[in-house]
Write a structure and sequence with these properties.
Layout (H helix, E strand, L loop, with lengths): L2 H18 L11 E4 L4 E3 L7 E6 L6 H20 L4 E6 L7 H9 L6 E4 L2 H10 L4 E5 L7 E5 L3 E4 L5 E5 L5 H17 L2
Parallel strand pairs: 3-4, 4-5
Antiparallel strand pairs: 1-2, 1-5, 3-8, 6-7, 8-9
Helix pairs in contact: 2-5
């Protein structure tokens, strides 16, 4: 295949990705992690739809901004549509983000916010399942001075913990709310 055909194919695949995102079956899957109360949970533990985000507590700006956005979306869906969607934060830095620290951290955003951590292997398994990129990046002279580079995708799960849809960081909150409602309605009717 010549390079022009490859570039065209890649462009078409990129354009089609938003249309086919909800039909993907290779995103998500079973997981076991520890919540902010020290309890082991799975993707089915919430019993309601969830918005899932991967990040780390010492993130200076992006993660707190995105978690606040998740909390607002969750509150707005409850207020406007009567739909309960649990905001869930999965740390990609289990070395520093313990359940005790997560409990205080996620509590800043909303009382129903869930924080999840686990072993390094647990985090690798869930990030692989959701195709989330992350990498430790040194930010000082000492080994404990580092930041985490990572994807900033928001995932919607149904009440059984199955992937339904994902949203890019730049998407407007009202658009996400509309798409959450539509995705949950489609899932309930089997579309």
């Amino acid at each position: 295949m010549n390079s022009l055909r490859v570039a065209g194919l890649l462009l078409l695949m990129g354009l089609a990705s938003d249309v086919t995102a909800a039909a993907r079956t290779d995103i998500g899957g079973p997981f076991q992690l520890t919540n902010q109360n020290g309890q082991r949970v799975t993707e089915r533990s919430f019993g309601q739809p969830a918005l899932l985000y991967f990040g780390f507590m010492t993130c200076p700006a992006i993660c707190p901004t995105d978690l606040a956005k998740m909390a607002r979306i969750s509150r707005q869906l409850q207020k406007d549509k009567g739909i309960t969607v649990r905001p869930v934060f999965v740390t990609i830095d289990p070395e520093r983000d313990t359940p005790k620290k997560l409990k205080e951290y996620v509590g800043y955003f909303a009382k129903d916010f869930v924080g999840l951590t686990g072993s390094a292997q647990d985090i690798v398994r869930i990030t692989d399942a959701y195709h989330v990129y992350y990498k430790k990046v040194p930010s000082g002279d000492k080994p404990d001075q580092y930041m985490m580079d990572h994807s900033t995708i928001l995932f919607l799960l149904d009440s059984q913990g199955r992937y339904l849809k994902h949203f890019g960081r730049g998407m407007d909150e009202q658009d996400i709310e509309k798409q959450v409602v539509a995705a949950l309605e489609n899932a309930a009717t089997g579309r």
